[in-house]
Write a structure and sequence with these properties.
Glutamine Phosphoribosylpyrophosphate, subunit 1, domain 1, 7-stranded mixed β-sheet
């Protein structure tokens, strides 16, 4: 499948849920990360991203309105040496801890399954960007139920060695809105990554997300030659 416009794909879906895009700029110099969250309920929308060390965490915007933090408060991004971990839940900590104990990305996620939010059984989506010795590799994963059957877990891991400049991979939790919400299907979508500076890229992604449902966006550019990075956070709640 040829890569499609990331912004067009986002704007065509009113509710992709939470999403991860990992890729390489067209000039091959930077690894690109985008992670966003959306929400339909007041509890889900009552969130912001805040910096937490080299990563980020979610936080209630209005603590008095926080109802159930179990699936909405977590660290989406953590850094382990040369590896940047991005997930849509507390499996970030699982991946961090077990990879730190010399298990692989895939092995660490075998200890987890989809979220217990019946009837949606929201998939757990995860990714790792490894920037080492002037090279970047990308891995992604989705753990989901078998078409809503909580007795059956489907586990998929995708590895992109020496990923092609100008291309990213986009995975998200839902195919669109619905009741129950339909889980993402297929491989991560190949999307076009240009040479925009991080502020232009961030603005394009934020503006493409549905204005009613978007909550927060995190972006990061990692210089492949040096490992140095710069990040941006956009929160709807201010």
């Amino acid at each position: 499948m040829k890569p499609i416009s990331f912004e067009s794909d986002l704007s065509s879906n009113a509710y992709p849920g939470r999403g991860i895009m990992l890729g390489i700029t067209a000039d091959g110099t930077k690894a690109v990360i985008a992670y966003f969250i959306m929400g339909r309920s007041e509890n889900s929308r009552n969130r912001i991203f805040v910096e937490d060390g080299e990563g980020i965490r979610t936080q209630a915007f209005d603590e008095s309105k926080l109802v159930d933090p179990s699936l909405i408060i977590y660290a989406p991004v953590r850094v382990l040496g040369n590896r940047t971990i991005v997930t849509n839940g507390d499996q970030t900590d699982t991946v961090y801890d077990l990879m730190n104990a010399e298990q692989t990305f895939e092995q660490s996620l075998k200890t987890r399954t989809f979220e217990p939010d019946d009837p949606n059984f929201t998939p757990r989506i995860s990714g790792v960007v490894n920037v080492t010795d002037g090279k970047a590799d990308i891995s992604m994963s989705i753990l989901k139920s078998d078409d809503g059957d909580p007795a059956s877990s489907l586990r998929y891991t995708f590895t992109y060695e020496n990923p092609t400049p100008g291309k990213g991979r986009f995975i998200h939790t839902y195919m669109g809105d619905g009741n129950p919400l339909p889980s993402f299907e297929g491989e991560p979508t190949p999307v076009i990554v240009g040479n925009d500076d991080i502020d232009t890229f961030t603005a394009k992604v934020w503006n493409a997300l549905n204005s009613d449902n978007k909550v927060s966006l995190f972006t990061r550019y990692i210089d492949i030659a040096t490992g140095k990075y710069e990040s941006r956070i956009v929160n709807k709640n201010k």
